[in-house]
Amino acid sequence: MALSHSFVLGQHYPGTSAVHQSGALVKLVSTIALMIGVFVATKTVQYIPIVLLLAVGIGVSRIPLRFFARGLKPILFLIVLTVVVQVFFTPGTVIWQFWFVRITREGLGLAGFILCRLVLLTLVLLLPGGVVGFVNEKARQTFGKLRCIRKWSFSKSATS
Asked: Which residues on adjacent β-strands are paired with residue 98?
């Protein structure tokens, strides 16, 4: 499978939904607000509104869930590594121990918290990326044309 198909962050997913038709500023501000919410949340209950807003955004965008699942694939190793490190190396109240390997209550809590945070951040970044990638390509084309016009005007004024 080509890299462009396996790495979906920033790729455009065509559609005509309300999310696709909303302005770039709305997408940017909502993405930043959700990301700030993910970083500010310190309790599980505080993630509920973020998850609900993200679920509504995914539902309204009509982008298939497998697009978002593919988006999690590149960071799956990072997620698993982080969770394993937190589970086995966080000190606290021991729940299970075998020789030098131990699992603590605090390690499980911290691993769940970090897992939730990484998955939510990735999904928050994928939602507008699936819609905005097309806008980025159009902006690149436009700025490429402007660059040609600017070079032409400078070269013309230099010869006058």
From this structure: 101
pTM of the model: 0.70
Quick: pLDDT tens for 42-75.
888 999 999 998 888 888 888 888 888 888 888 8
Whole-number Å distance between alpha carbons of 135 and 75: 25
Instruction: Indicate the domain borders of the chain.
Output: 3-132
DSSP code string of 43-112: SGGGHHHHHHHHHHHHHHHT--HHHHHHHHGGGHHHHHHHHHHHHHH--SSEEEEETTEEEEHHHHHHHH
Q: How far apart are CA 96 and CA 111, in angstroms?
A: 16
Question: Rounded to an integer, what distance in angstroms lies between the CA atom of residue 79 and that of residue 71?
Answer: 13
Asked if 37 contacts 50 with a C-beta cutoff of 8 angstroms, the reply is: yes
Alpha-carbon torsion (107, 110, 116, 118), positive or negative: negative
94-98 vs 101-104, strand pairing mode: antiparallel
Cβ within 8 Å of residue 93, ≥6 positions away: 104, 105, 106
Amino acid letter at 152? W
Distances (CA, A) of 5 to 42, 65, 70, 74: 34, 15, 9, 11
